[in-house]
């Protein structure tokens, strides 16, 4: 079962936190989230799963920034979210997808109990000028069956902003 | 809860409309949709979220058309659909994905109440010859929790064919 | 409704088979699957939906392999799975997506009744060195509504390993 927009609103302050929240961003069965003006790009010739890959920070200026196709841009949602009792999921908006802009790289699936900003994996098919503050994606919620253990991984929980991959930690222990 | 193929069939003419409909396209828990022969491509050096980007129309001929990797092709489903009471979602088929052809750009998430053809955001990893009429994707349905307001956005509701992004309208009001 | 990690564990040997299974790979509402060391790449200038496209096999060596951006790599899960009563779905992990590595090409949607290894459609935004055995994706489960007919397609059921696209068969009958 996917929560309706009305149910998302009714759950605020109980099982769901979205801050800041704006009624205009409610959809029939989801809620739109905005793009923050910070981006991270990797600074490596070849990335490596086993290493903490170097990154550089970019700020999206008022007049926007042009994204290049063969580059991954890590962004984040303006909104901070917390979710209990439901599985939060992120997907792009069709208006964004129709411009060939991916907002995640097969990684829109969340965990019940996750707290923080959502890091976005942005990739474009054709060069495109984007702007911070745009409603770039939507969050939606599934009910979860049976009892569960909340998300508590040391990697991305309670994050304060964009986080590059911490996959290399899997190879250490 | 995802509707089974049988339930999709039982809901036809009530909460679900798929036209044309063919029993052979029913799967265990989804229904296959076909590719129309029209495509739109953008006609811009650099796309811009704040502008109505120019497009050109292509027709897929009988012998098929070769898609190029660094190009976004907007297509559409042959079928017209309407959905009430459930959240409709679109995903590719594994036979299509195994050829490296994306059918949406993180935008397979629908809205309860949506009426129209589905615009497909087609992008290929390697050059590939595709054909119109192929069963290119599948529609599936989730139940929605609680009462809801049906999709009624002025952008894509009751569309008559492929629609490029109308994101620029977000920046006007 | 999405199964919690605990429910996935409780369903093992009944409606869900995951072999091999390791408790450490359970998440709040999914289970992580590992990457086998075999890859297939297509050996064609231009792929064609109507033809059985030629492929070449690669083995990921101990020191890993560098993936190139404009290439599709078909891999597979180490684990064999069977699912009844639920719809199995595959999605990447955020640690993998944050490195720009797709693990499916809009094809993460499964069928109730599917038995076999999952073929992965791997595509990277930037060049990256990957390693076999890494926890590359996660499987999660939705309940299915009403009675259903289990997946029994001749194409990918009971597979023994990576399978390239068999789409051309759709054009034969």
Characterization of this structure:
Three copies of one chain form a homotrimer. Helices cover 9% and strands 42% of the residues of chain A. Chain A has helices at residues 5-11, 94-97, 168-172; strands spanning 2-3, 16-19, 26-27, 30-34, 38-42, 47-48, 55-59, 65-67, 73-83, 86-92, 101-102, 115-124, 128-130, 135-145. In chain A, strands 2, 5, 7, 9, 11 and 12 form a six-stranded antiparallel β-sheet that branches. Chain A has a four-stranded antiparallel β-sheet with strand order 3-4-14-10. In chain A, strands 8-13 form a two-stranded antiparallel sheet. In chain A, strand 3 (26-27) and strand 4 form a beta hairpin. Chain A is globular and about 45 Å long. Chains in contact: A-B, A-C, B-C. Chains A and C meet through strand 6, strand 12 and strand 14 of A and strand 1, helix 1, helix 2, strand 10 and strand 12 of C.
Helix content of chain A: under 10%
Run of helices and strands of chain A: EHEEEEEEEEEHEEEEH
**CATH superfamily annotation of chain A:** Deoxyuridine triphosphatase (dUTPase)
Number of self-contained structural domains of chain A: 1
Poorly predicted regions of chain A: none
- Please name the CATH architecture of chain A: Distorted Sandwich
What gyration radius of chain A follows from the Cα positions, in whole Å?
A: 16 Å
Terminus-to-terminus distance of chain A: 37 Å
Q: In CATH terms, what is the fold-level topology of chain A?
A: Deoxyuridine 5'-Triphosphate Nucleotidohydrolase, Chain A
Determine the most extensive contact between two protein chains. A-B, 44 and 46 residues
The proportion of strand residues of chain A reads 35-45%
Rough outline of chain A: globular
The DSSP helix count of chain A reads 3
List the quaternary state of the chains: homotrimer
Which class best fits the helix and strand makeup of chain A?
Answer: mainly beta
Catalytic activity (chains A, B, C): dCTP + 2 H2O = dUMP + NH4(+) + diphosphate
Function (chains A, B, C): Bifunctional enzyme that catalyzes both the deamination of dCTP to dUTP and the hydrolysis of dUTP to dUMP without releasing the toxic dUTP intermediate.
Binding site for dCTP (chains A, B, C): 93-98, 111, 119-121, 138, 151
Subunit structure (chains A, B, C): Homotrimer.
């Amino acid at each position: 079962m996917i929560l309706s927009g009305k149910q998302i609103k009714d759950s605020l302050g109980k099982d769901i936190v979205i801050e800041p929240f704006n009624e205009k961003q409610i959809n029939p069965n989801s809620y739109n989230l905005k793009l923050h003006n910070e981006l991270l790009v990797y600074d490596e010739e070849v990335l490596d799963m086993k290493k903490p890959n170097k990154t550089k920070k970019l700020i999206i200026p008022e007049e926007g920034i042009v994204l290049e196709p063969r580059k991954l841009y890590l962004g984040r949602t303006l909104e901070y979210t917390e979710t209990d009792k439901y599985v939060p999921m992120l997907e792009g908006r069709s208006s964004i997808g129709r411009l060939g802009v991916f907002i995640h790289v097969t990684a829109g699936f969340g965990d019940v109990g996750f707290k923080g900003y959502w890091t976005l994996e942005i990739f474009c098919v054709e060069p495109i000028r984007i702007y911070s503050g745009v409603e770039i994606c939507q969050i939606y919620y599934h009910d979860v069956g049976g009892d569960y253990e909340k998300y508590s991984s040391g990697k991305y929980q309670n994050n304060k902003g964009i986080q590059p991959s911490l996959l290399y930690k899997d190879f250490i222990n």
